[in-house]
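Q: Sequence in, structure out?
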Amino acid sequence: MSWNIQEFPGYLGKKRDEIYQYWDRKYGEGNWRIRYQWNGNVVDRDFALQLYEDGYYEFLKTHTDQLEWLLNTASDIYDTAPSNVDAGFRYDIQETSNNHIHDVAIRRAVHRLGEVFNGDHLVHVRGEKTEGFHLNPGNIPFHLPHLILDIATEDYGDKGQWWNSGSIEDFYQKNKVLEVKKKQD
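A: Exactly. Output:
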């Protein structure tokens, strides 16, 4: 079975489940999938998540002041809810309506650097008014910005583009593709 890129869906946010249901109705359940374009190839989500995580790893490795602040401040981190800490190092544990992957990516990057959190409280790393906002994926430069697609994405999301150009989030949203099974003649 072959797959064709149908569109570049971009940010889905809290509308993710609603959009997935729409695609089920439009294309048929099991006839569509989310993938990522990377350097001329289409790759799966696990590959894209590794690149996302690598962005944090490279940033924290070279911005030791940020790493030191994080390690000395946070006992752990969360994105959408304190329950996110239960995901640990697993991207597949998603208990809230929005995906929370940058908390997992940061945890994994810290671990890869051979470090552990030594702080005294949970640090929220999402919204503008949170203590850890500077570590939001929309603020962290992607380590391979020349491989971020320069395209317009669909506007399914509930906020429009909230991230900076050339950031980890820019990669994750702009390189995302919706593939649909090619109909056989």
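The longest strand covers residues 32-38.
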